[in-house]
Amino acid sequence: MEHILFLTGHLAQPSLERVLSGLEPAPFTWEVRDLGLQVAALMTADMVRRRLPHPVNAPVNTAGEGAPRRIDRVIVPGRCRGDVDGLSSHLGVTVQRGPEDLKDLPRFFSRAAKPIALDDYRVQIFSEIVDAPRLSVAQIVERARALQSDGANVIDLGCLPDTAFEHLADSVRALKAEGLRVSVDSMDPQELLRGGQAGADFLLSLTVDTLWVAREVASVPVLIGRSPDDEASLCEAIETMQGEGRPFLADAILDPIPFGLAASIVRYHRLRERFPQVPIMMGVGNLTELTEADTSGINALLFGLCAELDVAAVLTTQVSPHARRAVKEADWARRIMHAAHRHRTLPKGLSDALNTVHARYPFPDTPEEIAATAAQVRDPNFRIQVSGDGVHVYNRDGLRLGQGAFELWPQLGLEDDAGHAFYMGVELARAEIALQLGKRYVQDQPLTWGCAVDRTDPDLDAWCAPGTPLAHGSGRKEPTR
């Protein structure tokens, strides 16, 4: 069996070993060697020449240990610069550049790797119903069920200033009857007291001046400073609860962009440094709701921070239309970032759930490969593929290339075939969107939008997997099983 030596740097070594361990089946044995640099991408052929013995299989004094395996091939990072052929001659063994991204090693060896499971997470999601006082108990329960389905662990009842919440206690009890955990979010201590007496699991938020509420009920308080930048009063509240032996969460308050975000992140970092074991809550709505940008990326970044700071809970909302999937995105983000942190790997290649707009590998086929396939077609059915050059449409009558549906339509001659014209219109529109956004297009399949749109085809991942061989039959592209 071939024995391969993989050269890498210090940071990439754990990830490389995990990917190699997950290769199934493995037609070779392997070993990984850290060449003594931090970043593998900075490796050069000259550096390898200096740091590896030559020839690489020269006899060595094993001092009584078993003889090392003979190396049949050396794989260097894809971005390794220099003369690899000359390096092969110098080392006396074939040297190859691997893929630029080590996650592509399974594709490089035409095999699949074991994926990292995303069924575990650290962060609890508190999902706030911000207008709870204006909803009936039945409406609150209905919304809570939907939020739980999206991934919420705790349903937060948001109270409103100068708005009576007469059915607060009834709402708490109704949610508890559903088996849900409940928090009450108010700046009014009396509302918090009523919520706690009704059985709320958490109370948001108490300052050092309102800790008396926590002593009246069994609810776990979330502690904040008298003002967001008053770190001293937050620390005082924390130390008071610690002295009383009471459970709590502490929130340093995340401020919006560009009104103090950087400073608030520093506050969280100081909080973690001063209290290494204290459970922290981070409210992310000031970013997801108040920044008009796709929330999937914002959530990815925020939950990455949560993984670094060991944040125990996040409070999120989905009020603004652009943030209407915030809980589902948060659920994916916490799982991805937890897996990345746990396995010491970058949050890349673990899941495409947060790639709602783009695809990591949008164009698997080159124009040359598409042209070679098109030249072999002998029937009238249209095939559609997308490359970086544009949308390719071909059948036995030839290959057409364009940037969109309106450019290609006049070349198809379907004016008298309404059914086929409708079908091609739909497919060309999808292909054009895929080209413009950089998404993967597979004929007869809907575009994938990560967690933004539920997938209806359980085999969609297999259909859209990079390098899936496709067979052409009736004009539809089918995966070869």
3D architecture notes:
There is one protein chain. With 481 residues, the protein is of the alpha/beta class. The strands form 5 sheets. Strands 12-11-10-9-8-7-14-13 form an 8-stranded parallel beta sheet. It has a 4-stranded parallel beta sheet with strand order 3-1-4-5. A 3-stranded antiparallel beta sheet has the order 15-16-17. The chain is 35% helix and 17% strand. The longest helix is centred in the last third of the chain and has 20 residues, at 418-437. It is built from 17 helices and 19 strands. The protein folds into 3 domains: 2-113, Rossmann fold (3-Layer(aba) Sandwich), CATH 3.40.50; 124-342, Dihydropteroate synthase-like (TIM Barrel); 367-479, no CATH class. Helix 7 (189-197) links the parallel strand 9 (181-185) and strand 10 (202-206).
Per-chain topology:
Blueprint: E1 2-8, H1 13-21, E2 23-24, E3 28-34, H2 45-51, E4 73-76, H3 84-91, E5 94-97, H4 105-108, E6 112-113, E7 124-129, H5 137-150, E8 154-158, H6 168-177, E9 181-185, H7 189-197, E10 202-206, H8 212-216, E11 220-223, H9 231-244, E12 249-250, H10 261-274, E13 281-283, H11 285-288, H12 295-309, E14 313-316, H13 326-342, H14 367-374, E15 383-387, E16 390-395, E17 398-402, H15 405-408, H16 418-437, H17 460-464, E18 470-472, E19 477-479
Parallel strand pairs: 1-3, 1-4, 4-5, 7-8, 7-14, 8-9, 9-10, 10-11, 11-12, 13-14
Antiparallel strand pairs: 2-6, 15-16, 16-17, 18-19
Helix pairs in contact: 2-3, 5-6, 12-13
